[in-house]
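Project outcomes to date are best conveyed with an example. Our students and postdoctoral researchers have been running inverse folding experiments weekly, and each run begins with a structure described purely in tokens. The record below, which covers 161 residues, was selected by the lab manager from last quarter's runs and is presented without edits.
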């Protein structure tokens, strides 16, 4: 990943082989961040933790899709925009130590410093889940209104309204 492209790497098509409930969890995490709804996020964390690898996979697909949408629409979105947006999105949504880990790990990730990001997360996949969900909420709102964002993600993921 180059420093000019901070969208998570992923397949260009939705992960249709994942169960619908996993897709729902991933989209709900993005939605909770988009709405700054800490209660909803708190309710999702145990479910996301139980299936974190699959949730991460779906969040990567969503992030790749949204990264392409930003490019297609011509919205200017640089690594610095991403770092600021993720930090702003997780602010006050997470306990301070987790907020710091997510923001700092995303900062490293956004400039291609994956080893540093891994050290910061201490291998906790939920830090990555929060990172990706916050990124998806931030970048998604650069091209979609909130209701349109969730509806579009549901369609892309193969879920019905």
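After processing, the design step wrote out the following sequence:
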């Amino acid at each position: 990943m180059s420093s000019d492209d901070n969208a998570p790497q992923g397949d260009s098509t939705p992960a249709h082989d994942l169960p619908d409930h996993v897709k729902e969890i991933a989209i709900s995490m993005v939605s909770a961040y988009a709405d700054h709804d800490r209660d909803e996020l708190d309710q999702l964390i145990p479910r996301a933790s139980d299936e974190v690898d699959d949730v991460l996979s779906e969040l990567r697909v969503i992030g790749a899709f949204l990264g392409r949408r930003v490019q297609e629409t011509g919205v200017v979105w640089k690594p610095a925009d991403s770092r600021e947006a993720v930090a702003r999105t997780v602010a006050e949504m997470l306990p301070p130590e987790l907020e710091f880990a997510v923001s700092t790990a995303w900062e490293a990730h956004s400039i291609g410093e994956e080893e540093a990001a891994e050290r910061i997360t201490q291998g906790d996949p939920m830090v990555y889940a929060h990172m990706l969900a916050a990124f998806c909420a931030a970048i998604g709102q650069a091209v979609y209104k909130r209701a349109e964002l969730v509806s579009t993600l549901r369609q892309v993921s193969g879920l019905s309204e």
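The chain is about 70% helix and 0% strand. Residues 20-156 form one domain. The training component of this project remains on track.
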